[in-house]
Amino acid sequence: MNYLRFVITSAVLITASSLLMTSCKSKSRRGDISAKTGVRYNDPYNGGLQINRKIKESPGPGLVGIEGGTFVMGGSLNEDLAFSHDNLRRRVTVASFYIDETEVSNADWLEYLHWIAQNYPQDGKLYYDALPDSLVWRNPLSYNEPYVNFYLRHPSFQDYPVVGVSWEQANAYCQWRTDRVNEHILRERGILTDYKTLNEQQQQAGQAFNTEIYLNGQLQGAGIDGKNMPKDNKIGAQKDARRTVRMEDGILKQPYRLPTEAEWEYAALGLIGNTYDGNIETSKAYPWNGLGVRDGSRKNQGRMMANFKITGGNNMGVAGDLNDGGDITVPVTSYKPNDFGLYNMAGNVNEWVSDVYRQLSFEDFEDFNPFRGHVFMDNQYENAENRTLAKDKYGRPIKVPAKAPRKQTWEELQAAKSGDPNKTTYDYDVRGFKDEEQQALYGKTTLVNDKSRVFKGGSWNDRAYWLNPATRRYMQQNESNAMTGFRCAMTMVGNVFGPGK
């Protein structure tokens, strides 16, 4: 009897072990085989479709992952002191995304200026257009002249937020940052020529890396390619053939950009710290808990939680026991971060967001990823047959108005090649969708047009009311002041906070 029991037990264990090994082997091979055709991926003998299952989504340098969700946009604002009624409560959902931990600092901007000077030493206009307007500090009845000369460049101010930058300049910085981050990734991995070799080659100025141009296969060859380029598995390729990186490889980062207004407000509130079992237990008026602007903890009780104008004539407190301590701006990591780990989402400087301002946007926008400001553009082709992109003198792709709201048929695409690339019947500019710009009234009865951009957050020179994340103001996209800076965001591809994470 015992012998029979032993035999049965052994048989069961052997069967279970066999099934487990088969299962593990099946799982290990599942990612290498198409679930729909059974054809093996990454096989140079059957066509060489390369599928990368090992890529793990991660933020770009300086970014923090923000777990998306639903919230009431405008819900933190209990008063409307200006009676503008421009952010009435509306429940929306914001997808997960990334955003800078801090505001962009003077040191960050000097890196940008330095790169321009190094790569385009003869292009005075490009450098001049990238310079912040330091004259924003100038005031006929205030002695601010030292800030005009020292604020941007003196090392004592290097960790302070950059100011005097327009919305247009902030967007140009985002585009530049995208290319520098991706270029650095490729050079560090040896996919592009490393920095030392590049320096020894004495690369000519003006040959800058651009992510879109690279992904289109237009940046490769001698002096460009590194030693660690991916293997080319396509049929007919030579044994040791190499290729440029593709989007499918998951190596390059998504574009940096300005956050949308909804993303910014959601990230500023940081309600994740007030959530339990899917319910928001307490609301917030600021990026911290409580209805006031002072710290309620025993250690720092009574200290200001942000850099703002406390009262008229009081920017920083009384000597000997300064309160917020900021006469103007302060370093970008000052004060406690909010529950997402973001610094200075209230006070210090206002921050540009990507949205075009309309008073009644809350009535019009979608309830998922709300945004107003689209101008849909396509790349212009230098040669449509071999899909070569046209470039400007800085090596960036030339953009032209989108031709259609959906994918065109092949015949429509061919017919469009012979026409003017800048002409289209499609309404590609939807900044004024459902709320058109009134050009005849601009400057007379309204100061709002399609170039009016939203900024949020309050600054060192604003009262506490403007620290509320739901408040909104606007400037023209080519304007700037000493109270406004910005931080960048990035779309999260996939969702690292998704099911089962």
Automatic annotation (TrEMBL):
**Pfam families, A to Z:** FGE-sulfatase
Q: Which UniProt keywords are listed?
A: Lipoprotein
Which residues are in the Sulfatase-modifying factor enzyme-like domain? 61-364
Its protein name is Gliding motility-associated lipoprotein GldJ/gliding motility-associated lipoprotein GldJ,TIGR03530
Supply the SUPFAM superfamilies for this chain.
C-type lectin-like
**Can you name one GO molecular function term for this protein?**
formylglycine-generating oxidase activity
* Taxon lineage: Bacteria, Pseudomonadati, Bacteroidota, Sphingobacteriia, Sphingobacteriales
Taxonomic superkingdom:
Bacteria
